[in-house]
Structures
1.
Amino acid sequence: MTTALIRARGLTKRFGNFTAVDGVDFELRRGEAFGFLGPNGAGKSSTMRMIGCVSPPTAGELSIFGLDPVADGPAIRARLGVVPQEDSLDVELTVRENLLVYGRYFGLPRPVIRERSDRLLEFVQLADRAGDRVEPLSGGLKRRLTIARSLINEPEILLLDEPTTGLDPQARHVVWDRLFRLKQQGVTLVLTTHYMDEAEQLCDRLVVMDGGRIAAEGSPRELIERYSTPEVLELRFDPDVHESAAEKLAAVPAQRREVLADRVLLYVEDGDAALAAVRELGLDPLTSLVRRSTLEDVFLRLTGRRLED
Amino acid sequence: MTAQTAQDGPAATRPAEPAARPGSPPAWSFAVRQLRFWLTDYRRTWRGSIISTVLNPLLYLGAMGLGLGTLVDKHGLARLGGVSYLVFLAPGLLAASAMGTGVGESTYPVFGSVKWNKTYQAAVSSPLRPRDLFHGHLLFVGLKLTMTSSVFLAVAVAFGAIRSPMAILALPVAVLTGLAFTAPIEAWTVTRTKDTSLAVVYRFGMIPLFLFSGTFFPVTQLPAWIRPIAYLTPLWHGVALCRDLCLGVATLPSALLHVGYLLVVLGAGIIAGDRSYTRRLYV
């Protein structure tokens, strides 16, 4: 037997004629933070729901803790924590009541729930709102409460579907910080995201998904090294000369050249040297930026499209 | 690759999860966990609900039973089986208000859980299965019906509208009548995506039944061709048996027939709900 915590082989999910997940393979080990990175509609959420045992696979194999999600759903779910994409809190109840109700679903005794609630609300920095109704809380606070709720059963695996979508930058950083601490505590994290910075921040390993398939797999660093160059030169031209400039740039030695609607990207070893070469050609970009390669560049390379479009 | 062929038919692909594994808690305890949720939820609203629970029978028995009843009684009591209108009406209203509670609980609260708050979606990420949510809610509605029907009976006794101690058996019959509406309607509600379709249940279902199932006047007053339709409705069976019990004239065969009919409707509703809950929440 393998030591994989979650194992998928040829995992497929179809809705009528539409194939949301098209035969994906992956394996997850205990204690790692694993990400599904891809644009909306890539099949990330469908994959997560199958792992969460609330969506029976159409075909292929899936095992979680070595158990079958269809036959052993309740036993698996007892050991999972789930942070869904859409908040599913009971907004009529208070913060603490939400944890109580959810803890009862897991058959936990009241004193245990009370003790864990105190600890979890402290952890997500909501202790001072414990008695408040959920309805008026901000999106960031609701998301933190959802995370607290997902931890009430002390799960071995935490599933997070787009954990920071819709949050403002400050709220996102709070969530990332808490998730990072959970990872330090040994909780296995599985998350989907279409934010490359989120994937880079949190994931030890990730798969890039597109059109229901896995396009690549590795650590953020490995993926960048494999599919991109150390540096990227981003150039923006006057829209009138954008196309002609883009053509002339073919003369600049670069591993790859991407012409986007508003920018031209040159994938190079040394961005400053490339910029000097651009100037030597007599081209005068409105703006120029030398930066490190990111997962966004990996995605662009693999799919020809940008992540957040 | 497994299950490749069974796909695309939405119903066929969802094998039921086993009831229980060795060492795991019994299946019924999962439904009780969901019952606890509804009780927690009810703690917020019970005060308002108690008021209407007491007020409704007072108003209806006062206005229709006493007010309208004095007019009706002047025209002779033969068609009502020789009893005053109040005595005729009270057991009918007991069953009809159980239907009202049963329908009310099976529509907006269920729709809200699956569509607005999505608390059902949250709950199926715990060990609970869709059918546990369904059964837990039925348990809650059963408790609520027991409470509202008890209050109704007590008010009816205070009005002097109850003739026989056999009326105590009308309590479980009223609860069963309410549940015979809750289960099938809830099975349907959980599949809905728009709340506007719920109004149809009231407009074309509950209100006609309320008026024409023998609550306010005997079904024999209806044209002969329409009577069989009344006899098919669960409410008529609930009304007829509650009335027989409250008047002390119930016989075992007819009681078994009425209860049997209501149980069949309830059972069919539970089977349908087990499926539709699973289909809606395991996608």
Note: Residues 27-74 of chain B form the longest helix (48 residues).
2.
Amino acid sequence: MSGRALVLAPVWAWLLVFVALPVVIVAALSFSTSIPGVPPYTPLLQEPDAQNYAALVADTYYLDAMGKSLLVAGVSSALCLLIGYPMALAIARASERWRNLLLLGVMLPFWTGFLLRVTAWIGLLRDEGWVNAALGLVGLGPARLLYTDFAMFVGVTYAYLPFMVLPLYARLSKADPALEEAAADLGASPWVAFRTVTWPLSLPGVVAGLALVFIPAVGEYVIPELLGGPGAQTIGRALWNEFFSNRDWPMAAAVATALLAALLVPMALLRARAP
Amino acid sequence: MRRGWFLPGALVAGYAFLYIPVALLVATSFNPSRLTTVLGGFSLRWYAALFQNERLMGAALLSLEIAAASATVATALGLGAGYALARFGRFRGRGVFGLLLGARLVLPDVLVGLSLLLLFVQMEQVLGWPAGRGALTIGLAHVSVSLSYVAVVVESRLRDGGIALEEAAMDLGASPMQAFGLVTLPLLAPALVSGWLLAFTLSLDDLVVATFVSGPGSSTLPMVVFSALKLGVTPELNALATCILVVVAGALLAVLGLQRRGR
């Protein structure tokens, strides 16, 4: 049908040129060599060479960075689940009239800007910041909070919490509360009813939420850079430095390709289990 | 129920976690002292300093232009993409189509930024376009990210209903084009407005992708803010954040009001 083709053609063209092709170029570039010049690399796919990948595996710097990234993403997505699940459940159980307003309350900080939210945490966590001022009032501290792993965990959790709450809410609001009531009528304690009825029904939402937080958090650059301090080398920062500081584009491409490969598993999980 | 207090408590704690940092930031921006935790008095001096900062204002203007242009293109393309996903059934290549659209929603920014920069460099070598990098390449990059978000908004709105109305229009003799223009588009108007605004804020908010694909002389607002932040938070930046907060919250409430009246 020509009408359909007319709608689809520009979108297909855009997706192929601006989404698919760039990934192919990154993969191709990861096999070339850095040289001085414009652009600073040997022509793509002439004498392909896996030396960048050899360096990636040989130098513990990259493996450590990947480990750090997985740690940050893992801890933060767990924290998001811990905070987000009760919130999503409470919103799903609220009366019809309140639900949209409560959901909007979760979304609003997401709309106010990413850098802004990180800025707020710098103000809270720095040595003369709000948290230390509060600690001082009760005779504690001052504690070093900013530029620590703790600051990174909190920052990533804060930034990505809405991505956890929304899919959980979507799933929980579909579950029939009568099921849990039936379990209670049959003698289940609230905890048993939750564990055997509500939690299993919400699992697809849990998987989607975890993946939606975990995947972007692994590649996160800004939060480790601003809250994590110089020692907190994550894979996102490694890629950034390879590109902007070392000007080694092929190496940056190799890091990017490895990062993408590592993310394929959670991405496939998300596609398979998402509601 | 014994759990009666637990869920509301968790909800309140969650909102406190979300809002206290922002509230403190807003409070600090009106504080005359440079020491952020010493609250005393009310002052607009940081706002005055902000509006006299030409570098920040220039970057803000550039960011607004890029955001408006890229949101408009993304909305047009996202309308096509979302319409295809909701109404075309199992068209050929639908799996790949959905995968490419979905990939942008989750891929880390550093990956998107690096891959798009390399695309632009290769395109310039092969086609001679785009010549150099700057506002144009930032805009193109932002379209390719926010297109996916608009498509999701449009698709979910179309899935909620409307197909019966379109079919009725066609039964009554409307051509598919007429049905689209007279029935589908008005139905989609609120989704298009929220899609456009989402694309607009995503563009305004983006630091990482823009840094990769920008050129000399084209620093967007987040790029200027980020380089300032690396040196530490100033009250001026808090004032800027408060301004953005007010504008975004205002726009959001306006859209909600529009949607409510439209029902």
Note: DSSP finds twelve helices and no strands in chain A.
